[in-house]
Design goal:
With 342 residues, the first copy, chain A, is α/β, with parallel strands linked by helices. Chain A folds into three domains: 44 residues, lambda repressor-like DNA-binding domains (434 Repressor (Amino-terminal Domain)), CATH 1.10.260.40; 125 residues, Response regulator (Rossmann fold, 3-Layer(aba) Sandwich), CATH 3.40.50.2300; 132 residues, Rossmann fold, CATH 3.40.50. Chain A is built from 13 helices and twelve strands. Chain A has a six-stranded parallel beta sheet, with helices on both faces. In chain A, strands 7-6-8-9 form a four-stranded parallel beta sheet, sandwiched between helices. In chain A, strand 1, helix 5 and strand 2 form a beta-alpha-beta unit. Chain A is elongated and about 90 Å long. The N and C termini of chain A lie far apart (70 Å). At the A-B interface, helix 4, helix 5, strand 2, helix 6 and helix 7 of A face helix 4, helix 5, strand 2, helix 6 and helix 7 of B. The first copy, chain A, binds a DNA duplex (30 and 30 nucleotides) through helix 2 and helix 4.
Amino acid sequence: MTAPPTERTPTLADVARRAGVSTATVSRCLNTPDRVIEETRNRVLQAVRDLGYSPNFGARALAAKRTNTIGAVIPTMENAIFARGLQAFQEELRLKGITLLVASSSYRADLEEEQIRTLVARGADGLFLIGAHRDPALYDFLNRRGIPTLVAWVHDPNAPVPTIGFDNHSAMLDLARRVIADGHRHIGVISAEQAGNDRARARVAAIRAAMDEAGLDPDALSLVETAYGIDEGAAAFEALMQRTPRPTVVMCGNDVLAVGAMGRAKEMGYDVPGDVSITGFDDIELAKVCSPGLTTVHVPHRQMGTRAARALISMVSEGTPGQGQRLDTRVVLRGSLGPPRA
Amino acid sequence: MTAPPTERTPTLADVARRAGVSTATVSRCLNTPDRVIEETRNRVLQAVRDLGYSPNFGARALAAKRTNTIGAVIPTMENAIFARGLQAFQEELRLKGITLLVASSSYRADLEEEQIRTLVARGADGLFLIGAHRDPALYDFLNRRGIPTLVAWVHDPNAPVPTIGFDNHSAMLDLARRVIADGHRHIGVISAEQAGNDRARARVAAIRAAMDEAGLDPDALSLVETAYGIDEGAAAFEALMQRTPRPTVVMCGNDVLAVGAMGRAKEMGYDVPGDVSITGFDDIELAKVCSPGLTTVHVPHRQMGTRAARALISMVSEGTPGQGQRLDTRVVLRGSLGPPRA
DNA sequence: TCGTCAAATGTAAGCGCTTACATTGCTAGG
DNA sequence: CCTAGCAATGTAAGCGCTTACATTTGACGA
């Protein structure tokens, strides 16, 4: 990067001149090679190589009115929860020659909207979002613009766009039933912020439902809401354990919070699950690695990403309305859950 | 997304018409507002709002020859190693109104090159890459195109572009010295693939150097190279422990491999660090959470991201050549390292 | 041999925006 | 009262590409 300015970036016209053809022919070589006779094509491709030409994306998008790009907005890149699903999503797109643009919203609706608009302005042919709950005006905007949009991480047949994911409520219900069956009566819950987060709300509601079902008072549930992160989980756990009655189990809205809670439990000298059980949600790698292993809900992240990619691709290329899918989750029992001490 | 086709996306010209001004004035309102008198500006902004206008990125890039976009290619998104630094990088860019485009290369040089070219074609004003080692022709290409490029995760004053990172060799040297001082003589190493990965190479070389220093035979080092991942770390660990002489410590090229190794150690019934010590590199969250805690090298990820962003921004906007920086690492001692059993 | 038609290629009109330059309408000094 | 000079705005030329349409070429049937 030392050299003074630089040489001019070669354009289609340069290639055309060098190959002795028109710009249209060069364009065809690149986009519809079979519409150009082989000899000409070779000459053009050679010129492309000689010049180190690569097409200008903006110009291409402008002229062709599509970008072969799909945009994704995820709440955070800072950990594995979305990474695995997104990776699978991207791999599937790559197979079809589609580029993925990723932005993160830090779990903030206003930033998400900003990112969505940025992606739309950049010409994303389709959009991949997490969670179905957002301002109807936003859906409206996407609809008017004709941007195919797909939501993952939840499954909700009533959402305004196709959703590919799992039923957060029934997934957490399974786990909560199991916890109650183990004999727990004082349940602490560490949830992500529920405002604007339909996954978090559904999960908490499911725990209440399970308590209700079992004849426990759902209001006896001891809840702490907190931001995302290991440290936040730890702090929330500490707060919870100081309440009366002290919970015998702490159910966390996701594995990251749970791992934080478990770490703090050890620091505070609690035995897990002897003194207090801890559960998570997601089954990310962290859950297997900590000790005791974390009892959690397994979510088929990669499958979700792959299917979402396929569905979105067909929405974009065939203009079909798109079909939601419900995936199954399952409770994974590991050492962190046990019966309360008598 | 039910509606039939859709209304046409509003353009600058639509806004201009509605506000009763020329397209140039609208453009100025958006880009250099102080060159337009307030009354006119208000009228234009109102029209923008009424129409829900947002500028077409491609057209803008085409006309203005810059995109306010910086591209990054990282080896993987699947875990926390690059996530934290990248997040900090992005936050800093956002402050200046610059968009970040992220692509991942799966640790493959050919994919990295492809991604770089894609980003360049998309008009990235600057590039952020991991590790300094790559085909000189690629650096040459970037140089000819005049794309300011910055490398992070290593510091190497001799690299063809500015590097902001740490000295992988001396960082690992510190840790290896410590390991040897603890009395270990049979050292196993689990490294990421060294080909094309200067960080991995430097780290392994540093362990050899420390052994040499201590009068041990550097060739006695027992090495396994493996792909990235917890499972891969586990498998490598198992292989290492079957060799003779059996290592009393397994030093891993990064925390993810180390956590995999530790998991397998437990499964195999080894006590850590009683039977075998394990060390990592990076100090990601995982390292704190597993038990025993992982002895590792702390890398100032966020600081690295923030500084890289500032440096790259000034390279892009001021056209300065850019200045590398060396950051400090430190060994973090946790429970996973102890003296070998007598 | 000629006409027909399809394949190969060329011509040129935009796509939506920025910006150099031209124009307009004031203000203020002479 | 004229005009230089400046601020506000308008005009229009591209930016690099795709693609509808026009043209050329050559193979083939009659």
